[in-house]
Structure formats: structure tokens, C-alpha cells
Amino acid sequence: MSSAEDIKQEEKQGDIAEFAPINADVDLSRITEIKSLCENCGDSGMTRLLLTRIPYFRDIIIMAFECEHCVYRTSEIQAANEIADDGVHFELRFTPGEGADKIKRELNRQVIKSESAKIIIPELDFEIPPSARRGDINTLEGFLRQFSSNLSLQQPLRTAEQPEVAAAIDKIIARLDCFASGEESFTFILDDPSGNSFIENPYAPSSDPRVKLTRYRRTKEQNVALGVVADSSDEEQSSSSSSSSSSATHPHSEGEGMAVAEGLKDKLKSVFDVSDRLFTMPGACHACAKENETRYAFTDLPHFKEICIMVTECVYCGYRDTEVKPAGAISEKGVRIALDVNHPDDMKRDVMKSDTAAVFIPELELELSHGTLGGKYTTVEGLMQDIKTNITDSNPFVMGDSSDVEQKQKFLEFLANLEKCANLEMPFTLVLDDPLGNIYIYSPLAPQPDPKLTIEQYTRSFDQNEIFGLNDMNVDHYTPEMKEEYEKKQSEQSEEHTSSTSQDTQTATMLKRKGENYKAGGLIKPEDHEFS
Predict the structure, then answer these.
(1) What digits encode the pLDDT tens for the residues 32-72?
(2) To 10 degrees, what angle do helices 405-422 and 380-394 make?
(3) What's the pTM?
(4) What is the 3-state composition of the chain as percent helix, strand, coil, each rounded to the nearest 5?
């Protein structure tokens, strides 16, 4: 049996292996040193590893290599968490001329670039592919200076051998320096299929007016490049052996999957009237790309519309996903719903939020743009908890030791007020806005008016229709035959209208002339009838 000292020593080693929050004062005992080969001189060097955690973001490994023989040094970071479900696409637009303080704040944004991410600057047709650099953490200005410095390294040699190429690169270097100094507008795009890259929001907890974030599903090629799934050639070679033994060796069997489906059906029946409307749809798992089935059921929300509840569970990798989508046609108008929350019963109201809806809380000056939080069916209390989780996870640098003191204090005050609203210590107004009208808040008085609920319908703008592809949507004449018949009918109607208009004009002219003749002959008085 181990002594007490041995147990304490093991506990200490376990603490060292954990990911501690990032801090300027690093405990040297947490640094792991490993002898490794120097790729520059071939001799032995030292690699130092630090396991750390960026608050509200994820765990990372900071690696630094140094060779005492040739003084070669390099450093990189790697994400220690699992690969995210979706890829991320950040598009940052910088515009100068807003004051030195704002320019400095914009250029001091922290940027995390994983080893699978690429950086694009469209104004220069400039791209850093994923294979060009390892994972890195720097400020926006730091990345721009880094690009400029790397391009300048071989310029003397290029000037001597390829003067035209060197002159073109000099122009790029000059513009990169202008971008880094905040003298010129530019676009900085960070695209990462693994979802492990990030751009800081200096305006947190408010939305970032400079950055547009898009999440997307990875393609099969991207999953193969990340190592999430095997190459198709490897799968074909092992398909016969894996298919015969998968049911015996994998912890998730087909029978268990059917049990999950029946359990889902029973659960839905206890909440909704789904009767026998439970269907399956074949597809591929978003995580491992294996064949999978999505089970979905339709149900009617009282005084709203029909919705579709979709549940996916992969029997191979255990991936699970739940989503709620509205069914039926797109509403003719957008809908805005406001709920005054000041009673515990208000927190228990059901909320249906689509993936195109925006969320506002005016008392906190909080705005979550369209698409944030995805589509879900929850309660007001559950939605408030999701909002808090989303805000803290989306702003990791605000709580770190590198954050601005004033900004950190402002963020903490906002979180405190948000917590008061979630605990109903402060009354607030919950506003849902969906241009497609797919939002719902339960009313116990329906169909009678609810004094706490305000529902407003509005006409979508042209830009909103453009975003959702409604301006180009044609549901009446979408086949060539129907289009030809429609145009022919329109042409005939136009000709009939033109002919009718011509006849009406001739008749009016004739009557006018007759009227003038009658007036001249004294048959009628001018005040009795006027032809004009």
C-alpha cells in the first residue's frame, strides 16, 4: 500500500497534468521538457510544452523548441480539445478614420489560428494556406507585421534575380504595412474547418459590428484532411471485415438504435400529439460521415403552426443532435414578439425560436443576431441560460489576463445583470424577431389577447428577402413549359388590354365630339352634361 507521501505526490502530478487557466505568472513545474531532434542542424534540442486553458474558449498546448547548438527557435500552439462539429468563417472588415483609440483597439484584437486554418486578404489576393504555418496566437496587427516580415526576407535575392517579381512583392509589403498601421481599409478572413480558430470581440458583450461569423458543415474532403474520417480508399479495403464484426465489437448496436427511436417516440407522445407521425430519413453523420438515420416527427403547436422535431444519433461514434424546424410555407410577413417578464410563471412559458430569429433584451442592450443559438424549443428560463452560455463562450479574451481592465469590468457587470434577469431579480423584456415569422411564445390566454405579450407583423425589406433567397424564388412558373405558357398568356392579355384601351379612347373621342355638336345646336345645356 502506498504511503501518504506517495499519494500526495501522485495528486500533485495529477494537478500538473491538468489544463490550468492561462496566466502571465506560470508555475515552472507545469512545463514539460522533452529532448527532440532539431530540424535545422540535426542535433538534439529541447521542446517545452505548457498545457493551458484560455477562459471561455478551450484548452490549448503551447510548444516552444530551442536548439543550443545552432540557436534555432520555433513555437506553435495546438488545440487540445476535440474538433468542433462545424467549421468557422470569420470575416473582419477594418475601416480607418475613427480615432486613434478605436484603431488601436481594432488592431489589438487577439487572433487564434489553428494549424488547419487559412488566412485570406482579398484586397491583395493574399492567402496563407493551412500547410504554410502551424497554429499561432497573435494580435491582428501582429499577424500583418509577421506577413510583411516574412515576405521581406528574400527580397534582396529576388531583386537581383527577378526584379519584376520583387517590385510586385514590394507593393504588397507596403500595403501590408499600411494595413498594420491602420492607414487603409482591408478585409481579414479566417477560415477554419476544425472550428478551433477565433477572433476576439472588443465590443463584448455587444455584437461585433466589424466581424461576420459563419458556421458551416465540413465537406467529406475536409473531414479526411482533419483525420475525422478515413480516406475512401482505406474504407473500401476494410469495409468487408468491418461490416462483419461491427455489430459484435461496437458498443452501439442496431437494436440499441431502435430502442432509442422507440424511447424518442414515447417521450414525444408524453409532450406532443405526434400519433404515428414518426419518420426516418437516411443520411450521413456530420461527425464521422458514416451512414446514419435522422428521426423526425411533426406536431402542431396550438395557435401557431406545425413544427418538425428532428433527432440524430450515430450508432458508430455516438454523435447526437436535436433540432426544431417550422413546417409549412414561408409566412408572407415577418413577426416580432415582445414578452414582459416579471413573474415566475413567465419564465416557464414555452418558446419556439427558429434558426433565423434574432433575440433582444432592451434593458441590457443585448442583441443576438439572426441565426445565433440555432433553432430550439425551450422555455424562457432555458433560453436565458443558453444566452449566458453563448455570450461567455463567444468572448474568451474578455476574462483573460490580457483583457482591458475597463472592458473586463463592463463585461462582468453585464453578466451580473444577465444573471439577475435569469433569476428574475430584475424584470426585463424578451423580444424575438424573425423575418420568416417562425417564432412562438406560449400564451395561457390564447386565443384571447395576452396583456404581457405583444405580437407585431411587418413587411420584409428587399435586403431581407435577398438574404433568404426570396427575391429569386419562383413557385408558379418554374418549368420551361409553364414559363412559356405564362408568357404567352401574359402577351395575349397585354394585346387584349391594348385593343380595349384603343377602343375606349376612340369611343371617348367620338362622344366628346358629339357632345360639342349637341352643345352648339342647343339640344342640351352645357350644365346638364359634360363630356370630357
Answers:
(1) 889 999 988 889 999 988 887 765 556 778 888 999 999 89
(2) 170
(3) 0.54
(4) 40, 25, 35
